[in-house]
Amino acid sequence: MITAIVLIKTSVDRIPELAETIAELEGVSEVYSVTGSFDLVAMVRVPRHEDLAEVIPGRLNRVPGVEHTETHIAFRTYSRHDLEAAFAIGLEG
Q1: Could you give the dihedral angle defined by the CA atoms of residues 84, 3, 74 and 80, in that order, rounded to the nearest 10 degrees?
Q2: Which pLDDT tens digit goes with each residue over 1-58?
Q3: Residue 33: inside a domain, yes or no?
Q4: Which segments constitute the Transcription regulator AsnC/Lrp ligand binding domain (predicted)?
Q5: What is the pLDDT of residues 60-82, one digit of tens each?
Q6: Residue 46 lies in a domain
Q7: Domain total for the chain?
Q8: H/E element, 3
Q9: Which residues have a Cβ under 8 Å from the Cβ of 55 and sit 6 or more positions away?
Q10: What CATH code is carried by the domain that includes residue 61?
């Protein structure tokens, strides 16, 4: 699974509406409203690298009100659960 983090600048008065629209796009798993220089962060998860082009420039960037995006591709996923499991290896017994 390929994961991309997409930082999105939008029309400020349309953030809730745009977040809902983006969240409904195929390939988008979550959308967060955030503070800082971007308004929304979308998590895009697709099976193949090529699918990113279909989801991000093909759909997400074309949502009316999306002004600018910046995409970051994840190399590896770490979560609290994964880290706890890794540190627990060999500690039993």
Answers
A1: -10
A2: 999 999 999 988 999 999 999 999 999 999 999 999 999 999 999 999 999 999 999 9
A3: yes
A4: 6-77
A5: 999 999 999 999 999 988 876 65
A6: yes
A7: 1
A8: strand 2-10
A9: 25, 26, 27, 28, 44, 46
A10: 3.30.70.920
Query: Residue 22 carries which side chain, given as an amino acid letter?
Result: I
Q: What's the angle, vertex CA 33, arms to CA 81 and CA 9, rounded to 5?
A: 120
Residue where the block lists tokens 């745009």: 18
Whole-angstrom Cα distance, residue 1 to residue 15? Answer: 28
Please, where are the H alpha helices in 1-93? 15-23, 49-55, 80-88
Of the candidates 69, 71, 37, 33, the one whose C-alpha atom is nearest the C-alpha of residue 52 is 71
Phi first, then psi, for residue 27 (nearest 5°) are 100, -15
